[in-house]
Amino acid sequence: MSTSTKPQPEQEPGGTTYTIGELAREFDITTRTIRFYEDQGLLSPTRVGSRRLYRRRDRARLKLILRGKRLGFTLAEMREAFDLYDEAHGEAQQLRYYLSVLDEKRQHLLQQRDDLEATMRELEQSYAHCQQLLEQQERERNGAQRIAS
Amino acid sequence: MSTSTKPQPEQEPGGTTYTIGELAREFDITTRTIRFYEDQGLLSPTRVGSRRLYRRRDRARLKLILRGKRLGFTLAEMREAFDLYDEAHGEAQQLRYYLSVLDEKRQHLLQQRDDLEATMRELEQSYAHCQQLLEQQERERNGAQRIAS
DNA sequence: TTTGCCGTTTACGTCCACGTCAACTATTTT
DNA sequence: AAAATAGTTGACGTGGACGTAAACGGCAAA
């Protein structure tokens, strides 16, 4: 039967593309995770037959998603942000709203930066204190050794 | 019956203390949340009868917990960190392990700082671009007005 | 005394972010 | 032809971080 489906021949009409497995390996996540992100409306790869095909844009979004996760954003939050970004290329109303949302995010990030710096300071303190204790112990051991000899 | 339970009279034997409700209000969380943290081994307030009594130390820990949460640490992680901190006042073995853990955390925070700065930069870019679009629209509106008049 | 108000434990429910099969298809390798 | 490899869609399970009653105790003001 002369099936008209020609899955392979098209040699990437424009730019680099990726399979789901490639992306999974590159970012050290499972394919399940990537499909889940699509389910939640965060990714929308094109299809070649039934297979998903990811372009540079999709890969960039995935990067953003993972970074967002490391910063504690929820998938829903990021979905909103992406949707806004995509639809904010016109009416002033939309643009103004988008600006306000960006400002919120900025506040969030500023708070987080403070948290991060405070935590970093305390961590360094603990570190230094811990080292002091160790050095003191070493000195005590040395002292004991000198006495014993 | 002369019950020997004297819940109130002891006027705070040392330093400030807090009830669970006070802390909940102060940090804008529910009492359920605070009890949950205790369940997970993150807090261990003393008791007056059956009531929980929180001291400055407990309050400080709660602050740490909430900050940790904002930075994406899990409760289990923080529990471990606290346990380590509490028990790392002796053997060199423990101290060395503690140092290594602190180093891990530091790596985490550094990664997060990079993520944060990158996100902040992109956010500012979006912000600026968005403002440009708005200003351009204003100019267009003004132009149209001048023509119409 | 009764009515709030704050506190307690126990237990089940929920939302999020996936993990884990299962059953199937399509291609490539042996 | 058989096996290995990569992909697909369900559907159910899970762990973390609480929410949400339910049922009770203790105390202070009305």
Describe the structure.
- Two copies of one chain form a homodimer.
- By secondary structure, chain A is mainly alpha-helical.
- Chain A folds into two domains: about 15-70, Multidrug-efflux Transporter Regulator, Chain: A, Domain 2; about 90-149.
- The first copy, chain A, contains five helices and three strands; from the N terminus they run E-H-H-E-E-H-H-H.
- Chain A has helices at about 20-25, 30-40, 55-70, 75-85, 90-149, and strands spanning about 15-20, 45-50, 50-55.
- In chain A, strand 2 (about 45-50) and strand 3 form a beta hairpin.
- In chain A, helix 1 crosses helix 2.
- The first copy, chain A, starts with 16 loop residues before the first strand and ends with a helix.
- The relative contact order of chain A is 0.07.
- Chains A and B meet through helix 3 and helix 5 of A and helix 3 and helix 5 of B.
- The structure holds a DNA duplex (30 and 30 nucleotides).
